[in-house]
Write a structure and sequence with these properties.
Order of helices and strands: HHHHHHHHHH
Radius of gyration: 20 Å
Number of helices: 10
Largest sheet: none
CATH topology of the largest domain: Tetracycline Repressor, domain 2
Low-confidence stretches: 200-207
């Protein structure tokens, strides 16, 4: 254990907390490792033993935030409401989390936007997790067949609703609550999908 009496994992968590606080105070671009080290009362070198550089620490901040988003969406995906309505509520939940972040806590969302543009591995993994959840929801609602059909339709639906979860677009429209429009779009796209042949069953598509 370090002199702080904290384990390595506890120290990392404390560093992430401090980095998030600095991010909110001075902005994403102005966070410095030396300030974070001072805040948690460890040496600059000690912090480097856990994070290779400032980018690694800030990535950890964003990754933790995204993990919480995934957990919240997973709770909706596993709820016992009507399967088709569950899809709608999943999108609304994702939208409102991002919208509230844009209104009340914009710096982490801004950091996520930058990481997304750079296609950082943890952002790619986050998107994959969300699409897997959505594919499962579509299959559960019998709107898609499990497998490639559900994955394809999940990507289509996610792209069709980009204005309601992409960080840049959310930040531009956050002051307006567009939940009603989102519900309309999701219902419209789902209606169209239900009218299409289910790949692999009706169209003979191979998995």
């Amino acid at each position: 254990m370090p002199r702080t009496g904290l384990s390595a994992d506890e120290l990392k968590e404390k560093a992430v907390d401090a980095a998030l606080a600095r991010m909110r105070l001075v902005g994403f671009d102005k966070v410095r490792l030396i300030d974070v080290a001072k805040e948690i009362r460890v040496s600059h070198a000690a912090l480097y033993s856990h994070f290779a550089d400032k980018a690694a620490l800030l990535d950890a901040v964003i990754e933790r935030w995204l993990s919480r988003v995934e957990c919240a969406m997973s709770a909706v995906a596993s709820s016992d409401i009507d399967p088709e309505r569950r899809i709608e509520e999943w999108f609304v939940g994702l939208y409102q989390m991002k919208r509230q972040a844009a209104l009340d806590d914009p710096e982490p969302l801004h950091a996520f936007d930058i990481a997304s543009a750079r296609e950082k591995p943890f952002v790619v993994a986050h998107l994959r997790t969300l699409l897997e959840q959505l594919a499962g929801l579509l299959a559960g609602a019998k709107i898609a067949r499990e497998g490639s059909d559900a994955c394809l339709k999940a990507e289509m639906l996610y792209e069709a609703t980009a204005a309601f979860h992409h960080p840049t677009l959310i930040a531009q429209t956050a002051r307006d609550n567009r939940e009603t429009r989102l519900r309309e779009i999701v219902a419209l796209v789902l209606g169209g999908m239900k009218a299409l042949p289910v790949a692999g069953r009706d169209a003979g598509r191979r998995e």
